[in-house]
Amino acid sequence: MDIEQIKRMTNTGEMYDDAAPDVARVRDHALAECRRYNAKVNANEGYDMSILTALFHEVGENVYIESNFRCEFGFNISIGSEVYINHDMIILDCNEVKIGNDVYIGPRAGLYAANHAEDPFERAEKGVYAKPIVLEDRVWLGGDVKITQGVTIGENSIIGAGSVVTKDIPPNVVAAGNPCKVIRPIRFSDTQWKRPNEGGK
């Protein structure tokens, strides 16, 4: 199977063999490229985003990813513009993972689109299924936030540090906890800091 065939298989949401040779080959390539990127950052040789851009499906402008980044395949990851991802990020992109514009992600965060089979015999046979994850524009994930498969975080929302998100979070809220729950609406400033469409700088 080529990459497009593997993508079609993993992105159906149906069970697939996570240990199949072609799947393992693509995963090993992603691991090697992540290690190459991280080694350059950790050796103070710069942030060579061309490595990850070649691995990902789509990357916007001014994307900044700190070291010790890890992903499953890479081909399912789409990132918008003006995105900052802090240290030790893990993305298990066994289905599509979409990160919007102006997103901040704290250290040791995880986006886990994959899940092993519940049936222990299927699990022993390396059965895995996956569902997409979406972070809409201007989302902020605190440190150590974990997001599980099938979850969408609505635009502008903030997820508090250490949260485990298992269900969709609506736009324009602060949410936190395990399991993560909405705490309150976002407080939009109407004084010092103006959004661009309101004439601020």
What is the multimeric organization of the chains shown?
single chain
Percent strand equals 25-35%
Structural class: alpha/beta
| Morphology | globular
- Annotation field: number of helices: 4
- Beta strands, count: 20
Unreliable sequence segments: none
Helices and strands, in N-to-C order?
HEHHEEEEEEEEEEHEEEEEEEEE
Helix content: 10-25%
Describe the protein:
With 201 residues, the protein is of the alpha/beta class. The protein is 21% helix and 28% strand. The chain has helices spanning 3-10, 21-42, 49-55, 120-124, and strands spanning 16-17, 58-59, 63-65, 70-71, 77-79, 83-85, 90-92, 97-99, 104-105, 110-112, 114-116, 127-130, 133-135, 140-141, 146-148, 152-153, 158-159, 164-165, 173-176, 181-185. It has a 7-stranded mixed β-sheet with strand order 3-6-9-14-17-19-20, with no helix packed on it. The chain has a 5-stranded parallel β-sheet with strand order 2-5-8-13-16, with no helix packed on it. Helix 2 (21-42) packs antiparallel against helix 3 (49-55). The protein starts with a helix and ends in a 16-residue tail after the last strand. The mean pLDDT is 94.
